[in-house]
Amino acid sequence: MAATPELFLLITCVNSRWHAVASWTWDAQDETCGICRMAFDGCCPDCKYPGDDCPLIWGACNHSFHLHCILKWVNSQTQPHCPMCRREWQFKA
Amino acid sequence: MDADLEALDALTEGNLQQIIESWECFCTGTDSFLSGDLSVAADSDEYAASVRALSHYGLTRLVGDHFLQALEESFRKNAVSKFWKSFNPSSDKTAASTVSSFSNVISLMSQEGSEEMLTASLEEICMEKVYQEKLLSILLNSLLSEGDVASELEDYISTLLPRHQLMVSSVLHSTLPQPFLGILRLYFRKILEELSSMITGECEDGYEASVDSGVGFTCKSDMASRAGAMEIEEVYDQSVTLKNNELIKNIGKLVRDLRSLGFTSVTEDAYASAIFSLLKIKVQYLAGDDYRSPVLESIKEWIQAVPLQFLNALLGYLGDSAGHEDSNSGLKSPLASLPTCYPGIDMPSEELVRWQLRLEYFAYESLQDLRIAKLFEIIVDYPDSSPAIEDLKQCLDCTGQHSKLVDSFISSLRFRLLTAGASTNDILHQYVSTIKALRIIDPTGVFLEAVGEPIREYLRRRKDTIKCIVTMLTDGSGGSATGAGNTGDSLLEELNRNAENQESADYDDDLVTDDKQAWINAMRWEPDPVEADPARGSRNRRKIDILGMMVSIIGSKDQLVNEHRIMLADKLLNKSDYDIDSEIRTLELLKIHFGESSMQRCEIMLNDLIDSKRTNSNIKVSAAKATQIDAKQDEGDMSLEVFDATIISSNFWPPIQAESINVPVAVEELLSDYARRFHEVKAPRKLLWRKNLGVVKLELQFEDRALQFTVSPVQATIILKFQEQASWTSKNLAAAVGTPVDILNRRISFWVSKGILVESPGSDSDDHIYTVVDEMSETNRNGLAKGTLEDLSANDEEGEGSLASVEEQLRKEMTIYEKFIVGMLTNFGSMALDRIHNTLKMFCIAEPTYDKSVQQLQSFLEGLIAEEKLEMRDGMYVLKR
Ligand SMILES: [Zn+2]
Ligand SMILES: [Zn+2]
Ligand SMILES: [Zn+2]
After folding, report:
1. What is the gyration radius of the CA atoms in chain B, in angstroms?
2. A GO biological process this protein is involved in (chain B) (predicted)?
3. Least CB–CB distance from B723: residue in A6, A7, A10
């Protein structure tokens, strides 16, 4: 393209500040918690705020639940097992 | 007559002779009496004897009737025509034409001494009447001196005096010339005006004038003690002496004369109408167009000070104000409950109390009509106009003519407010002022309901209503487009503050609290409506009112909450700092009104911002440490120092439109760096970037200046592409930015409008070429000069927010019902809106429950029509085939 020099005038950005937006996810295999049926990226019925306040926890079997949900479940049983696969429940190391 | 006939049968020749002689003597005597020669009666007994003789022969009735007739003839001939002549100067005929009569009156009254003329003529005709009465009493004496008079004759004789009185009054009434009533009225009016200016003028001008004016006032007040010259009591102190006033004496005499002539009601009408017309003028004068000070009290004071004092003095002079002596029996209910005292009047007569009630009612009605006619302006002026509103309330409480207010106000609303030209914000502001103002007038809300309905109905038809309501409730700064509302304070804030104020002080009126005020407050008290929740105090109910009426425009609380959530999300995502103090405050207020659970999602959104701020600074600290250790930052790269992020819990935010873009490489690197660090801090959580959301601040350098812009990431990405290349075709640029061409064209228009880029047609008809503007060319320089101030924000693009609009969201929610609706229409053929609504309500009770309003359904069905799935025939929805 044959052009006069002015056409090659470029924008010069001397300063910029970028404020971006992201959403977070627990990146679990399932959408919802198998115990309370609430979304993993939401929170368990006992919690007000999702995220740090209501964390997810994985079992040795690789099933995940809201921490608060599985604790309740585990405490209610003498021989705790995973509600999903019935294997003995152990927290993933 | 029977007695007379019997007597006639028994007559002898001699008797007859005596009768004839006596009759002649009687007639001549009567004539000479009437010509004014009283000597006949005084000197001789002959007249009396003839009367007795005639009476003896049973001719008493004949004598009496003849005598009365003679009196009437004489009265007509001598007194009446002369009397009327003085009131009808233009024409001697009594039936003066109505057209000229008024001007006659004016000309008569404007003449000097017309009052004297009236008084003198009245005096003259009264004297004539008194003279006739005297003659009549001579006759009566003669008739009664006969000895024992048969009782029926005695009855007859006793009617003669009343018959004479009747004759006088009926002769005068039957010959009454037109202007006379007008003259009387003007006469009283003039006197009253004189009195009014005497009484009210006095307190303004000082006492000297009144003392000098020679009205005979005795000034009780010490001259030194009247520093505050407006003290009403002092006026009353003086008014006490009104009874002795010359003016009152004259009027009293005049009224008495008129009464004695049988003009009692005519006279009362005349001074009544004079009083009322003066009162009306006074009300108009005091009310004026000033709504910021109360006038009702001064009107009432004036009524006390002028017309009532006048009436009291007049009635007192005439001696028929019964209340003075037999006080308690005359004082029945209406007064007993009135707290008003009559300054200077010890014990008001029943008559006076009646007058007061009449006058006050008239004043209330006049003021009420004046205020109602201007209610629209008054409400625009609210709360400054609250004194006028308080006055109006009192008036309406007395007259009960609230429906007048409703009709008149609705028609002015339709004419002045509910028009295409008025902005939704203005309508809402007037609506709120209307609620506030009418709530004072009508605490039960019945009339407010009637007045509010047309506004609500109109607002429901406007698309931006919900948005405006939410803005008005939650946003103090940007809310009022015309600046009508007080800036910096949201409606919620105001409602809340009022509620708090009412807890500490019951009434924040600036009126002094004295006994009177206490009484007014007591009158103001209204019981809570029966249907009100007893758990809520009446104060709480007041606060709920406005909000409730705002919600009732929208239809449901949920819609308002939802709209607020969408707007809040938009606001939060466009923040470049994490400053959410005012949003938190608003949320707290909304929680009070709508309940904590309704606001749960908003609370999480705000909490996200708080968390984001903390996480953001943690990440930056860790990044700074890392750079110190590595110390291998490429110069020219962007660092995390100029990067921030908001991290949202997307499940609790409104649906967000995903628009993929290829942000500049440097930014892309920052994003992954940031995400990695997030994952380190918050494992196992991960970040998903919403690249089209956020805020970018850019400072672009031009030859002679730098310009700052606050734009969206897409707009930033677009303009930064021109760092690499001065000219782009829209297709190439769209591919580079990673966005569809139509979106690119929409977004890039911002830079064109700012004069940074210029658009030219490309080789292809739907391809455009965008080029950086050559600053040296004159035309563009102008274009640029226009919008060069420091911060050019791109956030006000027309509703092109990144969040799904309410309609889109509603559409999503409604889509579930589409198959129900199609199924219904397949079965029923055609259905009206209401029927579809009701059927959905009936059948969709399982999850998801149908909970939409008719309006929402309607807008959804309109969408289906636009998609050519349905059509509308005769107001019914049918399936499109
Ligand atoms: Zn759970
Ligand atoms: Zn929890
Ligand atoms: Zn398992």
Report:
1. 46
2. protein K11-linked ubiquitination
3. A10
Residues of B in contact with A10 (CB under 8 A): 722-726, 772
DSSP state of B651: G
Give, in words, the CATH class of B655-799: alpha beta
Q: CA angle B857-B862-B864, nearest 5°?
A: 95
Task: Check whether the bond before B684 is cis (ω within 30° of 0).
Answer: yes
B774 close contact with A: CB closer than 8 A: yes
Structure token pair of residue B346: 């010890």
B622 three-class SS: helix
pLDDT confidence of residue B460 = 87
Confidence band for B213, pLDDT divided at 50, 70 and 90: very low
C-alpha angle B418/B419/B424, rounded to 5°? Answer: 70
Residue B685 to residue A16, Cβ atoms within 8 A: no
The CATH architecture to which B806-879 belongs is Orthogonal Bundle (1.10)
User: pTM of the full predicted structure?
Assistant: 0.64
Report for A6-10, A51-55, B779-783, B834-838: range of highest mean pLDDT: A51-55
Domain at A8-76, CATH class = alpha beta
Cβ atoms of B405 and B464 within 8 Å: the answer is no
Query: Which residue, chain included where needed, has tokens 């009637």?
Result: B450
How far apart CA B107 and CA B88 sit, in angstroms, is 11
- Tell me the β-bridge partners of A15: B699
Is pLDDT above 80 for B626?
no
Q: Does B578 touch chain A (CB under 8 A)?
A: no
Gap between the Cα atoms of B330 and B320, Å rounded: 12
First to last CA, chain A: 63
Distance CA B745, CA B731 (A): 10
Q: Does A23 touch chain B (CB under 8 A)?
A: yes
- Which structure tokens are listed for B183? 């003259």
ipTM of the complex: 0.92
Q: Which long-range contacts (CB under 8 A, 24 or more apart) does B282-287 make?
A: B282/B196, B283/B363, B283/B366, B283/B367, B283/B370, B284/B366, B284/B370, B287/B367, B287/B370, B287/B371
Lowest mean pLDDT among B194-198, B228-232, B834-838: B228-232
Burial class (CB in 10 A: 0-12, 13-18, 19+), B194: middle
